[in-house]
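Working notes for the structural subgroup meeting. M.R. asked for a predicted model of this chain before we commit to crystallization trials. I am recording the input and output together here so anyone reviewing the notebook later can reproduce the run.

Input as submitted:
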Amino acid sequence: MNLFLKKPILSLITLGILSACATTHKTTQTARSAIEQLLLSEAVIKSLPDELDSPLPIPRGANVILDTSGISEDKDIVRQVLAGWLGKQGYHVMIGWFGEEGYHAQGDIDKATHRIGVIVESFGTEFGETFFGVPPIQSLVIPFATPELAFFKAQYQTGFVKFYFDISEIPSNRFIVSTSPFFAETHYNDYSVLFLISFKRTDLTLPPQVGSFKKAVKVQAIDTPSSEQKK
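Returned structure, recorded in token form:
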């Protein structure tokens, strides 16, 4: 076999081996992936301080109605989290949500003295990517596709929320004040180096782990009794 034929054959063999190494990971089987949901929900929680620098212009213990408005279809989670947070601040939220730590849900909204309108200006995720390597190639000449070869790849996901309160009296509907904006962001970044090395950086509390090995180790650790329990 002459040198002219050896080079194309070796190239085809190499590409065939590389194409067999590709793996597939679908990011989600739902409308939003688990990571996206955590990015959004934890951004809302992160945006709310334990204690306000300046209290809301509403007497503590007042009965309030909580409304939310915004473009995002996911704004209901904002209302849910805010209802619990307002309860912690000492207000009685009267929209039927179950409260925590002093917030009382009541059914008679006629007793409400104030309305808090939550204006959700932004609530969503952003995605960015940095890639250095060879992208996947689909050729009409070669009967198979070559996989992506990443010397370095970084995928950045950011969750962001920004909202403010419009507070008014009931039943007069007298406008009182618009608060300063509440905002926060969360992140989940995925890195790959030299094809095989991968790691993640995130501020999420308990992000999901793709794969069964880590889960099996955790389950085994839970099911295995300690030395004290064996005694």
